[in-house]
């Protein structure tokens, strides 16, 4: 805590003593160097033990605490804590089991789309989110407009591509917007795109899966009224937890869940898919939120991840045969960044070589209009020496 009080995030991001103490809070299986924290960020030992205690307690005590405390009181307290994490009114947040559950519900139950309208999906959106948009368009007789992002991408050509897409397609009504794309790690200028969308009467559903916990943001200031998040990536929660955000003034534009009759029509919790939640995971959230704050929150986590990213990207940019896909514009990047080997056609094979020959675990990503790539995502136990091993491997494999 003293470190936190004394240092600003960018200084703390470089303080290896601080990060060694953080890393000591995690159990890490010996094995390949993990540069794929984008799937699951890892719980601390303490969070894992707390989760296990809640599993055991619920199993021992069975339905009594669920019915007498959790359903009416405990779940509301935890939901409120989640809203405080997002810095939004309690009544605008519902807990769900994943970002996918949140986003699919927002899309499926969006009730303003009509026959003849258009929806926009892009090559950088998450597949299931884009598929949900296509599904909605089919159901309502709307048209799907597919947008490919410019490459190489800059702030200006990105904004221009949205400006042109909105101008070319005056019937657009709805679009997903991915805060941090899982394909390349590109960070979208959310506030600017959302403002442009609003000028054109287009509603935005924000996919914040990779943003929460590593980026600081204010949803109201961003102009976002619908959003879905998960908590297992950068918040450090157990798997199986997500959040739905609906701005209170827009609750009527998302229908309640088809199966729900527990909550009032204007209660955001009726917009979460019905089902018994993973109660022990929910009960672990206060511990996880306290840990998130203690580490320095998204400001410090994001600064550390970006610092580790800069360590390898700054060197990789000078390696012939390596193309880094995300620019160094601070508005457009975070800790996750993808690259490709330009002299090797098969990026999936190179992912395998990084693992087999260099003990480095990364992940191949396809689907961007600019082609397949390899995603690198450090975590809170990643060291600069591990990142340097990646750079050394890139130097050798790029030839
Ligand atoms: C950009 C993006 N959106 C949505 C999701 C889905 O999140 P969840 O697995 O919590 O449903 C992911 C998961 O990796 C993601 O990367």
UniProtKB/TrEMBL annotation:
GO molecular function: transaminase activity
InterPro entries in UniProt: Aminotrans_V_dom, PyrdxlP-dep_Trfase, PyrdxlP-dep_Trfase_major, PyrdxlP-dep_Trfase_small
Keyword flag Transferase: yes
Pfam families noted in UniProt: Aminotran_5 (PF00266)
UniProt keyword annotations, A-Z: Aminotransferase, Pyridoxal phosphate, Transferase
Domain Aminotransferase class V: 77-388
PANTHER family, A to Z: BLR1280 PROTEIN, L-CYSTEINE DESULFHYDRASE
Protein known as: Aminotransferase class V-fold PLP-dependent enzyme
Lineage: Bacteria, Pseudomonadati, Pseudomonadota, Gammaproteobacteria, Pseudomonadales
């Amino acid at each position: 805590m003293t470190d936190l009080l004394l240092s600003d995030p960018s200084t703390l991001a470089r303080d290896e003593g601080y990060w060694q103490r953080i890393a000591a809070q995690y159990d890490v299986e010996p094995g390949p160097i993990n540069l794929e924290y984008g799937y699951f960020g890892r719980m601390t030992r303490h969070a894992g033990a707390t989760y296990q205690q809640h599993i055991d307690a619920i199993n021992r005590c069975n339905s009594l605490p669920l019915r007498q405390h959790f359903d009416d009181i405990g779940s509301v307290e935890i939901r409120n804590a989640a809203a405080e994490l997002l810095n939004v009114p309690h009544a605008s947040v519902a807990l769900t089991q994943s970002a996918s559950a949140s986003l699919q519900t927002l899309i499926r139950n969006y009730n303003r789309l009509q026959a003849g309208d258009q929806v926009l999906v892009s090559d950088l959106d998450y597949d299931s989110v884009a598929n949900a948009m296509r599904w909605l368009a089919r159901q309502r007789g709307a048209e799907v407009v597919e947008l490919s992002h410019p490459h190489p991408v800059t702030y200006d050509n990105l904004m221009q591509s949205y400006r042109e897409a909105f101008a070319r397609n005056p019937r657009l009504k709805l679009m997903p917007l991915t805060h941090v794309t899982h394909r390349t790690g590109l960070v979208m200028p959310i506030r600017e795109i959302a403002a442009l969308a609003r000028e054109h009467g287009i509603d935005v559903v924000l996919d914040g899966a990779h943003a929460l916990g590593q980026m600081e943001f204010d949803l109201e200031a961003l102009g976002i009224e619908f959003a879905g998040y998960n908590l297992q990536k950068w918040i450090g929660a157990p798997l199986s937890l997500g959040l739905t955000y609906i701005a209170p003034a827009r609750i009527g534009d998302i229908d309640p869940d088809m199966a729900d009759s527990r909550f009032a029509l204007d209660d955001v919790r009726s917009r979460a898919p019905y089902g018994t939640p993973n109660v022990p995971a929910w009960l672990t959230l206060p511990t996880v939120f306290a840990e998130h704050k203690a580490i320095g929150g998204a400001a410090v986590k994001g600064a550390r991840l970006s610092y580790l990213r800069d360590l390898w990207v700054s060197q990789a940019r000078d390696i012939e045969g390596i193309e880094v896909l995300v620019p160094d514009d601070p508005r457009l990047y975070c800790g996750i960044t993808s690259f490709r080997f330009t002299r090797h056609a098969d990026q999936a094979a190179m992912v395998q070589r990084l693992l087999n020959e260099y003990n480095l675990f990364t992940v191949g990503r396809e689907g961007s209009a600019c082609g397949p790539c390899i995603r690198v995502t450090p975590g809170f136990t990643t060291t600069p020496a591990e990142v340097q091993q990646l750079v050394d491997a890139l130097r050798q494999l790029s030839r």
